[in-house]
Amino acid sequence: MAELEMLLNSIDVLRNEYLDKYFLAAQAINKRKTVLSEVGRIISPKIATEKYDTGQFFLHRVFGYRGVTLFPWTAKVFDRDQRKKPTSQVIPEERNEFKKNNVTPKPHTYYQVLIDQRDCPYVKAQTESVTFLGNHDNTRALYAIPGLDYVAHEDVIPYMSTESTLIQHQLFEKFLTYEPDKDPPFVPKETLLAWQEKNHPWLELSEVYRETTENIRITVIPFYMGCRLSQNNNVYWWRYCVRIENLGDMTVQLRERHWQIYSIPGILESIRGRGVVGEEPLLTKKFPAFQYSSHVSLQDPSGHMGIFKMEREDGTMFDCKIPAFALESKQHHDHHHGGGSVNNLTNQQKKNPSNASSHNDNDPKHTDTSTNHQDDDKQK
């Protein structure tokens, strides 16, 4: 990981003195040697009320990869900031904690982006976070688009590329075309506009949930993927992305997860396990964030919340709250209202098979994407 560490060191310097400076990115020659090569020049970032245009090259502020913007989304952010509200019990017993009117949402700009595939091996986040259901109504097969991501406005560090290979991604030349008189000099092709319109329901980022406990910020972004018919019942699918970010100076490690799931009849169930997606990620000052995504399919609406148990450098533990959120179907006006819980239902669905589709470790139709592509239910 020396390559990414050197890259992030460069970012720390450039963040303070980026104007008229050349951005240097670390590129690995082999496991023992790393060199710096110029990839472009940092330009002034846009304020929060302005949006980046399609075709803007950027560096991700947290994960360090190079990318290019495709189009923006305006999301509603529900931010339950707990930094100034210490509590001894982080999991409320009341189901009404799921009600969105407990928190006033604020609009926030995110961007659909392409990730430079040369940087994917060094990113501590899944690079196949965007998935789709198959085209047939009776299939639950999931298809991933490698190198497609969602980036918050404040995580975009824009630059003008000076590389001969601007962005290495299979969709770059299909989606964007060069027009030297434009700024930025890449504009959307008709294929990008058509692709956006066709897949808008499954691409759209509409709601973001955040909560911070002792300088550990948890962000959850759910995406509705669609509905499939299974044994004459509607089954609703979602993907959701979880980002765990250390905002402080002290190193912490995620040790355990504890989810609480509220199903539509008002039943509360709990799921516990070691780590997430087979890992117990270490969050340091140099590598402060870890991100993974998973999928879930259920027939009945529900909400979920929980905690991550974190360990400090001195060995003491604390509970970090996962913001409460519900999974809601966009088709509830036309079909049975769908909703779901997290993918930690491997054991639970055996108790309640009427509420969940097949969801165990051996089900080839259940897919998780993460840094190591392991199932969230597997124990270390």
TrEMBL record:
One of its GO terms (cellular component) is nucleus. This is Polymerase delta-interacting protein 2-like protein. Residues 342-359 have a biased composition (Polar residues). Residues 360-380 have a biased composition (Basic and acidic residues). InterPro entries: ApaG_domain, ApaG_sf, Hemimethylated_DNA-bd_dom, Hemimethylated_DNA-bd_sf. It comes from the Eukaryota. It comes from Euroglyphus maynei. GO terms for molecular function: DNA binding. Residues 210-334 form the ApaG domain. It holds the Pfam family YccV-like. PANTHER family: F-BOX ONLY PROTEIN 3 (PTHR14289), POLYMERASE DELTA-INTERACTING PROTEIN 2 (PTHR14289:SF16). Residues 329-380 are annotated as: Disordered. One of its GO terms (biological process) is error-free translesion synthesis.
